Protein: F-box domain-containing protein
Organism: Sistotremastrum niveocremeum HHB9708
Amino acid sequence: MPPVSSPRIMSKSAPVPELSNGGGRHAVIDRLESVARALEHALQSVRDLISDTFEEAENIGYWENSCRRGDSMSFLRQTTDRLLDIKDSIESSVLAAIADVREQSNQYTEILRLPEEIIFALLSGYVESHLQSRDTGRQVEYGVAHLDKKWIKLRKVHWNVVLRGAAKLWSYIDLSWPLDVANSYVSLCQGVPLRLLWNIPVSNWDVEVSNYENQKEWTSSHIHSTEELQLGIQHIPYSSWQRDKLVDALRECCSPDLQSLRISLGHIGGDLEYAVVPLPALPTVNLLHLRLHNCWSSGPLSPSLRTIEIIALDPQIVTVEHIFQVLSGCPLLKSCVFDISAADSLPLPLSDISLSSPIHLPNLRHLQLGDFSEPMFDWLYERIQLELVPDMQITILFLRESFEPFKLPSRFGAVASRANSLDFSRESVRYTTDDHLDHLFSLGMPLRSRIETHFLPKLNFTPFTRLRRLCLGIYSNAHHSFWMEGLSLLRELHDLEIRGSQTEISEVFLDLSETTPLICPTLQKLSVFDDKMWKWLDEMDETGAAFQSKKVVAQERLETLLKSRVNQGIAIQSLKLSTPSWWAEDLDRWKPLVAIVETTSLYKFP
């Protein structure tokens, strides 16, 4: 769904009633006096009740005589009715006063001083964010999100003049509402193109069929004034009746004027018989934004598309060949998300699509791909210039048990050579450049590798020679020489963050202070985080001699590093330590050697 565009600033602000020269005070006083009169009238009515009770209720309490019992019951019920009238009168007056005073208080809010277009954009943005916050990634609810009562309540706030002028605000219509409400919204939106949310009814019961037919007829009659249609099935597992009705709705309710389309079948659960719904060909003339959740179109997609989001929780729905068709056939795409489930086994032989060179997509700014097996990624990489996309996220599942260092595909090397920042953790590699390229590789390892504690992936640092910042989130002595060889390449590194076990990290301090030529000679900031893994891996007694000896050595090695840098005239300027940790126990020990010493208790597991 496209973001709300930035509004044009206008000098005209929202209409605010003039309350100067005491007008506001007089309005409040009038309302309070109205409440006082209502209370005085209520008090007089209660006194009248007391008087009537003295005069007419002398028989209350006599139970022996049936006539007296009847008179008593009649009088008491009349008294109850009169008390209810008194309550209603007081309540009506007090609530009216509250509403008026609240309305007047709204007139002093800063938002009401903003230009009308800003207010309209804020309110429209609220609706947009409300829909998106409940509908992100694989956590998408079944079908499409509803506009719930929180949104409907907004109409009750007494900003009638402002809200009635916000035509775009009324263009969001949920077809689960009564159709007379939908019609009232259409009249208020003043010709602004509609944005419809429609979930197919749950079953083929008579009432559901009637609702569906009414909704379809209403949608068909307004489809040429609709720019966005969100269509979904909420019930899981959905029935063949729902599937057929969704396809029927697409055939009859998609017009060439549609600019944004979303079709959502929610999560796939239980029987997968209807996992792949053969959608009819989608509109291809003016469609700019497309979102498909657990479904795919039988026809070609619109070459005019600017954004596309595909979520497929079953590997048979969308394949890497489908993705290639989209990327190669929609040259105007700016944002592309393919969140698919990779098959448990290697895919069938992929099509041999021969190209003289990989396709360049100059308009694409954001690309998210995953979950891909290695063969799927390799096949697409050979045909699309993925490395040139400014904002890219790729998830690769390694199906084989591989302990080789992670290497960037060769064409990414030129981009990595410009990287100024690199984060490498157990499950991801992310680098950024000065010209705002941001590439993230998520590394999905086999389950057995994940649970083997000795397994730590490695990274080939060769392309990253110009780094100024490095976060090494998975340090282990098992690969110490490998990491030191990598760090020795980083002659421009200013900021180093190391995460690992405090029983092992000090090996890095030793090499940073003693190795010739000096490793990371321009280092200015050092951050050290203890991941507490030693508690499970080493099983050391924290009060024992071996543990205390390691602690002393670790502290001495950090001190040696800091002193060696000071003595060489290249002192480290900032030291950040996680707490609790050995090095955070005596901060005064480091302060003479470092300009800034800070601690943090926040730690994100790599």
Observations:
- The two ends are 32 Å apart (CA to CA).
- The longest strand covers residues 226-233.
- Residues 1-17, 138-142, 151-158, 268-274 have pLDDT under 50 and may be disordered.
- Residues 319 and 340 are 8 Å apart (CA to CA).
